[in-house]
């Protein structure tokens, strides 16, 4: 049991800091993202990537890219999935990958954002699965973040036990396209009011607020945010979540597979 723990989580050194049981190689940054200043914005991930693991991740990522609806030419997908793996394990944020997808493949900002975020989530989810399988872990318990951002599908799976070989419909933790379930039409929802009416009761306000306030008519909170076009909009509490998704991109699955170790 202790050996399994050390392989998964490492050990503590004399100063009390966690260190890996073995020192896995650190992937170098992809050359196309090696401009000055970029490296300090991201968090590197040390990964033990054997050829077998690379191949397994590539297979699942390729399947996702084909069914994503991005209409990326089939001959370009092998190179793209390799770039996504490299960027993910080098620690680049999904917005950096989104920029690459827009520049190299002509995708819209919204599609590139959702594609990059979901692809990175799939890569890390599959990598964790392969690590757990290698130490003999055959099943796990589904664990959510237990907040309002968890989609209904993942919330229903919370606490349940699954085998790696028999995933629930929609995939293992990290593979669920939660944004499709939380807000299917997130790109089409109202982005807030540009006029001076309350977003809750639509009563004309005496003065357009510049910060969070309460409507004197319905006593409900009014939020003031700046949208991607730089305009100040008035939002109700119910509009906030969809506004954030619309401005900041898709909601990826934040669930975790808690390994069940046999001993």
Plain-language structure description:
With 263 residues, the chain is α+β, with helices and mostly antiparallel strands. It has a domain at 1-134. Helices cover 38% and strands 11% of the residues. The protein has eight helices and eight strands. The protein has helices at residues 2-9, 51-67, 77-89, 94-105, 109-134, 152-157, 178-182, 237-248, and strands at residues 11-12, 18-19, 139-143, 161-163, 213-214, 221-226, 232-235, 256-260. The strands form three sheets. The protein has a three-stranded antiparallel β-sheet with strand order 4-3-8, covered by helices on one side. A three-stranded antiparallel β-sheet has the order 5-6-7. The chain has a two-stranded antiparallel sheet with strand order 1-2. A hairpin with a 6-residue loop joins strand 5 (213-214) and strand 6 (221-226). Helix 2 crosses helix 3 (77-89), helix 2 (51-67) packs antiparallel against helix 5 (109-134) and helix 4 (94-105) crosses helix 5 (109-134). The termini are close together. Residues 1-45 have low confidence and may be disordered.
């Amino acid at each position: 049991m202790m050996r399994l723990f050390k392989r998964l989580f490492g050990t503590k050194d004399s100063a009390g800091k966690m260190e890996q049981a073995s020192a896995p190689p650190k992937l170098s940054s992809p050359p196309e993202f090696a401009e000055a200043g970029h490296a300090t914005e991201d968090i590197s991930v040390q990964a033990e990537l054997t050829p077998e693991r690379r191949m397994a991740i590539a297979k699942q990522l390729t399947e996702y890219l084909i069914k994503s609806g991005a209409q990326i030419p089939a001959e370009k997908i092998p190179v793209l999935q390799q770039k996504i793996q490299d960027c993910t394990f080098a620690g680049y944020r999904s917005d950096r990958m989104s920029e690459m997808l827009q520049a190299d493949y002509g995708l819209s900002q919204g599609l590139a954002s959702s594609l990059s975020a979901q692809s990175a989530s799939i890569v890390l989810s599959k990598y964790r699965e392969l690590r757990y399988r290698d130490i003999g872990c055959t099943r796990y318990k589904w664990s959510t973040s237990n907040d309002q951002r968890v989609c209904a599908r993942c919330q229903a799976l919370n606490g349940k036990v699954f085998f790696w070989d028999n995933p629930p419909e929609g995939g293992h933790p990290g593979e669920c396209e939660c944004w499709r379930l939380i807000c299917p039409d997130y790109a089409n929802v109202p982005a807030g009011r540009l006029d001076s009416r309350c977003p809750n009761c639509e009563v004309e306000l005496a003065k357009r607020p510049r910060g969070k306030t309460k409507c004197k008519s319905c006593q409900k909170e009014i939020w003031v945010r700046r949208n991607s076009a730089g305009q100040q909009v008035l939002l109700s509490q119910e509009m906030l979540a969809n506004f954030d998704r619309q401005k900041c991109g898709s909601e990826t699955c934040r669930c975790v597979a808690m390994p069940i170790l046999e001993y």
